[in-house]
Amino acid sequence: MDSARLSLEELKIKITQANLPPEVSEKLLTALKFSGIHELSSLVAYINFVISLPFNKNSTDILDINRTKQILDKNHYGLQVVKDRILEYLAVMILNRRNPQRQRVEGHAPILAFIGLVGTGKTSLAYSIAESLGRPIVRIPFGGLGDPNLLRGQSRQRAEAEPGQIIKAVRLAKVSNPVILLDEIDRVAQEHRVDIMGILVELLDPSQNQAFVDHYLDFPYDLSQVLFIATANNTSNIATAVLDRIEPIQMPSFTDEEKQIIGKNYLLPKALEEAGIDNNILQIDDSIWPQIIRPLGFDAGIRSLARTLQTICRKVARKMVEGQSGPFKINSDNLGDYLTG
């Protein structure tokens, strides 16, 4: 009993020494005052989680449109219309920051939402935007999401209660202005679609997200500084209220010619690096790229191409470990050996 009281006193000191907003400190101290000794374990977890949240801690944005252009061109081939829209979005952000009188409306710009087929670059564009701004990014997958409480958290009155993924993402980012990627928001479980779309409206509406309440925290947390980016395969399963708060940007499919350039200049170097192989060890004849691009027929994105190149590089890596020195030249005669088996 004495050790439990000592723990409660230690928690009180921890709360008062943490740099928390006054209303949050008051709530934690009240919870501490009216909690029984038997609740100590869950109380410690709750207080430690709240104290670890990045209240009033923001990363400093890098608002350099030329830098952003360079990063987009470095990470993505083509997609000029999409890149232009991102640069326009950034330009508006920069102008609002330059004019203090307009800073209050900055958060009211529509949320960027990349819409397109699998493998067309939606997710990687979000990571490039975060890189250009110098903000951490956390991805929340919505594919198959069926329980709204996974987003908003569970009440601490329930056993094994946890915070929701939104607040967990902020904590993981360690700043209150991260990029949070809401990935595949059209693929939520149909039976919980209405509830999840309602939470999305609250997240994406600047008049509501400045006081987002996670059921586990049980107090409002300001999400107005978060840059939300959404992705979806199509908009047919997205609620109208959510569509009103996003700006859909259609992702084009890649032509075979574009895929060959992407494969040579982006995907193959990455696959070689991941496999620990020097660039000069592997040579691929230009004539067989069409077979590498379409091993199983048409694919709008580049995900299958990336997997194919990774397969080739893994087989080369094995040959090297087994004693072959290379260089390895892949042509029409031996391509099958690198794609199968």
* Helical fraction: 40-55%
Order of helices and strands: HHHHHEHEHHEHEEEHEHEHHEH
The chain-level mean pLDDT equals 88
Instruction: Quickly count the domains.
Output: 3
Structural class: alpha/beta
How many individual β-strands? 9
Largest sheet descriptor:
5 strands, parallel
User: Would you tell me which CATH topology of the largest domain applies?
Assistant: Rossmann fold
Strand content: 5-15%
User: In the CATH classification, which architecture of the largest domain applies?
Assistant: 3-Layer(aba) Sandwich
Q: Quickly count the helices.
A: 14
Description:
The protein is of the alpha/beta class and 341 residues long. The chain has three domains: 50 residues, no CATH class; 186 residues, Rossmann fold (3-Layer(aba) Sandwich), CATH 3.40.50.300; 84 residues, Helicase, Ruva Protein, domain 3, CATH 1.10.8. The strands form three sheets. A five-stranded parallel β-sheet has the order 2-3-6-1-7, with helices on both faces. A two-stranded antiparallel ribbon has the order 4-5. β4 and β5 form a beta hairpin. α1 runs antiparallel to α2 and α4 runs antiparallel to α6. The mean pLDDT is 88.
Q: Summed up, what is this model?
A:
With 341 residues, the protein is α/β, with parallel strands linked by helices. It has helices at residues 2-17, 22-34, 40-51, 65-75, 80-98, 122-133, 149-152, 165-173, 193-204, 240-243, 256-275, 289-293, 303-321, 335-339; strands at 111-115, 137-141, 179-183, 212-213, 220-221, 227-232, 246-250, 282-284, 328-330. A 5-stranded parallel sheet has the order 2-3-6-1-7, sandwiched between helices. A two-stranded antiparallel sheet has the order 4-5. A two-stranded parallel sheet has the order 8-9.
